[in-house]
Amino acid sequence: MSKGLQDIARELLEKGEVQVVVGWGAVKADPDRTRPILVTDPDEVGELVWNPRCVNNLAVYLTKAKSDVQALGKAAIVAKGCDVKAITGLIQEMQFSRDDLVIIGVACKGVVSDGSLWQGELTEENRDLKCRFCDVRTPRTYDHLVGEEVPPVDAEDDWKDVRELEEKTPRERWDYWQEQFERCIRCYACRQACPFCYCTRCIADKTLPRWIESGQHPRANLAWNIIRAMHLAGRCVECGECERVCPVGIPLNLLNRELAKEVAVEYGYRAGYDSEAPPPFATYREEDDQSFIR
Amino acid sequence: MTTADSQSSEQEQRREGAVGPEGWEPKIVAFVCNWCTYAGADLAGTSRLQYQPNVRIIKLPCTGRIDPVFIVRAYEGGADGVLVSGCHPGDCHYSSGNYHARRRFALFRKLMEFVGVDLDRLQFSWVSAAEGAKWVDVINDVTNRVRALGPFTEYQALSRWWKEVPDEQAIEQRA
Amino acid sequence: MARIGVFVCHCGKNIGATVDCERVAGEAAKIPGVVHSENYLYMCSDPGQLKIKDAIRDKKLDGVVVAACSPHMHERTFRRAVAEAGLNPYLAEMSNVREHCSWVHQDIEDGTAKAIDLVRVMVEKVKLNQPLTPIRVPVTKRALVIGGGVAGIQAALDIANGERDVILLERDPSIGGHMSQLSETFPTLDCSQCILTPKMVEVASHPRITLLTYSELEEVDGYVGNFQVKIRKKARSVDMDVCTGCGVCMEKCPVKKIPSEFNVGLSMRPAIYTPFPQAVPNVPVIDKENCIYYIKGKCKVCEKFCGPGAIRFDQEDEIVTYDVGAIVVATGYSLYSVGEKPPGSTIAGYGEYGYGNIPDVIDALQFERLASASGPTEGHMRRPSDGAEPKTVAFIQCVGSRCPEKGITYCSKICCMYTVKHAMLYKHKVHDGDAYIFYMDIRSGGKNYEEFVRRAIEEDGVVYLRGRVSRLYRKDGKVIVRGADTLSGTQVEIAADMVVTANATLAQPDSQDVAQKIGIAYDKYGFFSEKHPKLAPVETNTAGVFLAGACQAPKDIPEAVAQASGAAAKVLEMFAVDELEREPTIAVVNEDTCVACFFCKRICPYSAVEEKEIKDRDGNLIKLVSHVNEGLCQGCGLCVVACPSKSIELLGFTDEQLFAEINALAE
């Protein structure tokens, strides 16, 4: 698998089609992990790997937030289906154009959030939660594909995780989330890992007026997490990076997926499918649901 | 979303009026657009209609100008309920502001519901400049529903924690 | 530190009866930043205003809150008073303690508590108010009128007679529109051409009007007072300056079999043609798709016979650009056809009426041409199939209109009246003929309209049958009309010689493209949306763009003309001043933090957000940001909420102000 990827990367770099390949590389000190790497020299493509430990969504390296990568020149990116959705969303949000980028798609049967869980075989147990509902095991768009096409997961209910919580009482849900948000230390790792958090000045850092209370205490934590989710509504591609990087284990993707579900159900829209589609919160239909408005 | 059990117990609670400390009155913040609902509320006034005095209006040009963060702020400030009201579909002074607002709030209320907020605390209405009487109904109904729920103690508890525990101590305490 | 003055009005007893104004003023004085607070019986009276002015001067106030009635009532009054005292008028706000408080609450404790809160909210806002200056934009005093039908003609003439330049744009070879096709007009039975042609000639000869026929709108840029419009002048293949309009080319053209658009297919025209003899301008065009020269490379008969030598086969389309200050859209309507519709169309055809394949079933415009003295039969009633005089004619109303099954729910409004007229004209021409009208309702609101209907029934013997026609089919040279008469509760079958369908009035098929070029809204049928259905039926949501005629909704001639004159008055009103003044409450972008996602641009109802390039000194692009065009922005604030990085502020309603208002209500 990695070999095919390396060949593609070498050719792209040698022919000068791209100046940098954004991919995953092995970590020498810890064979269970991979890390994002930038390859600019065709002789170094051997560093590139592709396996279920390649969990990072590298699309984040294409954004303004990582302007040093942009400065290297035209990029090729190694991307799983979910990563490609993020790329599509970024194109939709005019952060770069499809022509500026070569996508080396990888067919993916799932990844593991903790590399040590994978020792050669993917199982229902070790496969990451986000992969259990995956709709894009073969990327929806790519210039090169590594591996054979994989059919999407045929989940009985695409939103099972969300519905489980929905079925609890309001008080139970409140307590559940308070318990989660209580732990938030406002480190903003979720923001750093998110491809859509490409704002150069985040609202969390906005003063005059202070947009969201700073400091770590329940009221401020609730505000941050609610507003973060709202900001990603209709944009989040459920890559789960926020949740993976959260040092205190808040199930952020569950919050994102609740909104993704509503957008899918109400507006028939899935983020990251079509870069030409108008984002659902920049458009409307006259017949949109208004049963909640008296 | 609520199970049958929890629903019925909630209803029971409301029937018994087992809510709120003595003398407590609900505090409700209404975000309204300038062109329809604000004018509808004006009409209620010129028609001398009477309604409950618990709502405080904040005027904006359009419901499309209302950021969900405003609503969060209102709760943070101790509001027991929030009302958002604007022009009926097709009547928006800015032609499409209320349509965009409708989508945004359809989602925001789902999110609030998901994190456990009772949706009687977050209500929406279309009130036109001609609907003074509807404004009265909306205000009375919103007030009654929030009154039935009692103070928004869950949210206010978050604030109390903040007020009572100085920052450094808090961090130490939780570390 | 702020220096705010609070002025609490009793409004006689209106506020004072249920709000303790003195206490409100007293509480207001305790709010940090409030340096002056008073209450007075009538704040809006001269002495009341004087108190405000004096306090501004004496206490050096930098903000004023008047707690009184609704700002919709007196905001202007108090802002003017504040300005007269030398303070920026946008530093004054009103707390609505009358409509929203004293009038709706009876308990004085409740009322007073609420009034204090409402004052507190506004004090906190005013502390953050910034002095604003109304935006002034220059006006180019030239108007573009799009569409040369009767509405466009009227608007152009009115503006031109108001001594302003007008460009009148028409995409067909001649102006005149649908009205020039009509035979007589209801309810007076004036000959349509007789009343329209003089106006057409006046347009052509008016020194203030530039007439561009056979031309289409390409692009509109800019904003109110300052539009740049690009127009494509399609190649006529005839030099307009040389052609004398003698018509020899049309006689000599070997192509003769092209269905005439003007006569709705009831006659044929050559490849070089004017749509009708009274065309303005009276200069033919070559229909390139049917001209033998353009198809096969040889012929040029017209060129050979053209005395003045006006034929120009090598003429090309020309793009011209004009600066205009206002635009009147008068693009008119199109007529529904019963023909089969392409798959995916939201509107269906009438299979039950033979999809338009029965020759003696004609539509209303075809009947107009049949009845017209200048038409293919010179006004004689002759049916299309065999030229015989029809002795029995059935007229069917609401074909397409008011028919959700066919995809149109609205009433086309003009059909009731023109169908009466048709039946009447028919009876006047064929005295022994029978005219039947199938109708749903007779909608004859309008001056002398109902009388006209009664005349047709009582004097001309037109028979009305209330019911729908379920089927039309040919049999023995007749068209069998099967329908219901719901008033007698019977099925009706009429063997008609000819059937005339009153087809629905539709928007122009390309109206959405036009709307998008100009930046105006349209409804689901493609009719253009007015700014307000009652109080601004001539304006659109885009400042400086006005509507006239049936492009907004189905309209008869007097309505179209009235709206056209209304639009012209609006244009002349705009042109009466050198600069337009606009409310300064507009959105501004923080270019440092903008990340160019352009959600703002997508969501803006006015297309006021533009992409702006920021370049360094050498002209290299540093980044792209959003920019709000202050001429177009209407201050709704949608972009502010859509902006993920909160890099847009709405002046007058900034996030900081709104937070302050919300916080003022916090415990």
From TrEMBL, chain A:
GO terms for molecular function: iron-sulfur cluster binding; metal ion binding. InterPro entries: 4Fe4S_Fe-S-bd, 4Fe4S_Fe_S_CS, Helical_ferredxn. It holds the Pfam family Fer4_8. The keyword Lipoprotein does not apply. It comes from the Bacteria. Keywords: Iron, Iron-sulfur, Metal-binding. Gene3D superfamilies: Alpha-helical ferredoxin. Residues 174-205, 227-257 form the 4Fe-4S ferredoxin-type domain. This is 4Fe-4S ferredoxin-type domain-containing protein. It comes from candidate division TA06 bacterium DG_24.
TrEMBL record, chain C:
Residues 234-263, 282-316, 585-614, 624-653 form the 4Fe-4S ferredoxin-type domain. SUPFAM superfamilies: 4Fe-4S ferredoxins, FAD/NAD(P)-binding domain. One of its GO terms (molecular function) is metal ion binding. It comes from the Bacteria. The keyword Hydrolase does not apply. It holds the Pfam family Fer4. InterPro entries: 4Fe4S_Fe-S-bd, 4Fe4S_Fe_S_CS, FAD/NAD-bd_sf, HdrA-like. Its cofactor is FAD. Gene3D superfamilies: 3.30.70.20, 3.30.70.3270, NAD(P)-binding Rossmann-like Domain. Keywords: 4Fe-4S, FAD, Flavoprotein, Iron, Iron-sulfur, Metal-binding, Oxidoreductase. Belongs to the HdrA family. This is Disulfide reductase. The lineage of its organism: Bacteria, Bacteria division TA06.
